[in-house]
Specification:
Blueprint (H helix, E strand, L loop, with lengths): L15 H6 L15 E5 L5 E10 L2 H4 L4 E6 L4 E6 L3 E3 L3
Antiparallel strand pairs: 1-2, 1-5, 2-3, 3-4
Length: 91
């Protein structure tokens, strides 16, 4: 079993509800929820395993497309990626 105790460090500070309250409704409904296993495509077209952490609401403040936080358990790190680079991963 994969130990995900460290995952809480990468949880977004705000959620979808606060984004809506603030008037930032450009968060798309991609269907992922916290803890879902995903594949993340890199710039070379390779897929890396990850865990979906949550939406990145700062996109509404700074522009750019919709993005999300994804944690990479093997590397014990997280990154912000375009939601269009994330696909479901069956376990």
């Amino acid at each position: 079993m994969l130990d995900l105790a460290w995952l809480h460090r990468f949880r977004p500070a705000t959620g979808y509800a606060s984004a809506v309250k603030a008037g930032h409704t450009d968060v798309i409904d991609h269907g992922f929820k916290e803890g879902d296993p995903v594949w993340v495509e890199d710039g070379d077209g390779k897929h890396h395993s990850g865990i979906f952490v949550g939406d990145n609401e700062s996109t509404g403040w700074f522009g750019g497309g919709p993005s999300a936080y994804v944690a990479h358990p093997e590397a014990h790190q997280a990154e912000v990626v375009s939601v269009f680079r994330i696909t479901p991963r069956d376990e």
